[in-house]
């Protein structure tokens, strides 16, 4: 690792502009909000929902991979690979299951927010990866 590089990904993020730190906080809170929906009423019965586990699991695995990748390459656009690899399958799966959840429920609104926020991040990550591969700043 480069001696001038912050030791951890969190330290590198702390050096980024306030708007980027705020966006990262939105992503973190959106994913962690899934915890509030692990148990819910499904067909008039309390049940454990699978979707929140997929959202949280993809978030945690991507975070571990991104930290590992940061240790090897630093704070570069390639870090978006973690989201693309681990969030995309979760996002697509949630997108395909979204109609199983009542749209006007709090959980339905949460899933729409998750899809919009994580989807926006994935678009930015794909653009960043293309720029990285093409050698663009």
Q: Would you mind describing this structure in some detail?
A:
This protein is mainly alpha-helical. Helices cover 65% and strands 6% of the residues. The protein has 5 helices and 2 strands. The chain has helices at residues 9-14, 18-32, 51-73, 81-97, 106-133, and strands spanning 39-42, 45-48. The protein has a two-stranded antiparallel sheet with strand order 1-2. A hairpin with a 2-residue loop joins strand 1 and strand 2. Helix 2 (18-32) crosses helix 5 (106-133) and helix 3 (51-73) runs antiparallel to helix 4. The radius of gyration is 17 Å and the shape is elongated. The chain starts with 8 loop residues before the first helix and ends with a helix.
Largest sheet: 2 strands, antiparallel
Strand adjacency order, main sheet: 1-2
CA-to-CA gap between the ends? 21 Å
Helix content estimate: 55-70%
| H-E order | HHEEHHH
Keywords, separated by commas or semicolons:
5 helices; two-stranded antiparallel ribbon; elongated; mainly alpha; 137 residues
Provide a brief overview of the structure.
65% of the residues lie in helices and 6% in strands. With 137 residues, the protein is mainly alpha-helical.
